[in-house]
Amino acid sequence: MNSAKIMIVDDDVTIGNMLQEALEGEGYSVLRAYSGTEAVMLYEKSTPDLVLLDLNIPGLPGEQVLPIVKNTPTIVVSARSDTDLKVGLLYEGAVDYVTKPFVISELIARIAVALRISSAAPKKNADAAEKEGTLTACGVNLDPDLLTAKAGGSECSLTRTETAILQILMLNAERPMGRSTILDRISDSTPDCTERSLKQHISNIRKKLEALDGTDHIEAIYGIGFRFH
């Protein structure tokens, strides 16, 4: 039996129910999201093994969700059949594109192939690289031991809490991170950080990094949290 976790992102309840029944029949576990915003929040919390993504969904459209989930095999399942759109989304990170209406057995086969290719590929973080205790992402180098960040040829000092927050954001570069998730992941090293103080710490980090290279590296995403880029 399969043990992979698949997230269905589709606001069409009938199609979602059909997909869920078929996938669970194959042994997969299933997550459901009915909007782009919900998909991002669920993805950030649950990290599925594969995403089935519709394009015409409420909130964030599928085209904006795709870059956020790009580190996970994503099959676009959409009624839109424009060839240029298909090609563009495949270049942007989708592993496959299935046009509605589809044959469920074919989609199941495409899912199995995508998961097989993914499991055979070497695992790595495409957005951040760690070397000799340092972390580099989006032009910023962080040394957690020295509590320093470098960018644009300049360096700044960070507090221990700022370092812990920046490290989590950089390890998930280009992916939105929820406030509660950030607090949970830094709770052991910085138990003094609260949801109220997190915003101020983020503001301090943004100002320090922007002073180094003139770039605002941390984006606040309404209703979700923050994204490092």
Structure overview:
The protein is α/β, with parallel strands linked by helices and about 230 residues long. The chain has two domains: about 5-120, Rossmann fold, CATH 3.40.50; about 130-229, Winged helix-like DNA-binding domain superfamily/Winged helix DNA-binding domain (Arc Repressor Mutant, subunit A, Orthogonal Bundle). It has helices at about 15-25, 35-45, 60-65, 85-90, 105-120, 160-170, 180-185, 195-215; strands at about 5-10, 30-35, 50-55, 75-80, 95-100, 130, 135, 140-145, 150, 155, 175-180, 220, 225-229.
- How many distinct beta strands? 13
The secondary-structure element order is: EHEHEHEHEHEEEEEHEHHEE
Mean pLDDT level: 87
CATH class of the largest domain: Alpha Beta
* Helical percentage: 40-55%
State the fourth-level CATH superfamily of the largest domain: Response regulator
- Beta percentage is 15-25%
Strand order of the largest sheet: 2-1-3-4-5
Summarize, please.
The chain is 41% helix and 23% strand. It has helices at 13-25, 36-46, 62-65, 83-91, 104-120, 160-171, 179-186, 195-213, and strands at 5-9, 29-33, 50-53, 74-78, 96-99, 129-131, 134-137, 140-143, 148-151, 154-157, 177-178, 218-221, 225-228.
Ordered list of secondary-structure elements with their pairings:
Elements: E1 5-9, H1 13-25, E2 29-33, H2 36-46, E3 50-53, H3 62-65, E4 74-78, H4 83-91, E5 96-99, H5 104-120, E6 129-131, E7 134-137, E8 140-143, E9 148-151, E10 154-157, H6 160-171, E11 177-178, H7 179-186, H8 195-213, E12 218-221, E13 225-228
Parallel strand pairs: 1-2, 1-3, 3-4, 4-5
Antiparallel strand pairs: 6-7, 7-8, 8-9, 9-10, 11-13, 12-13
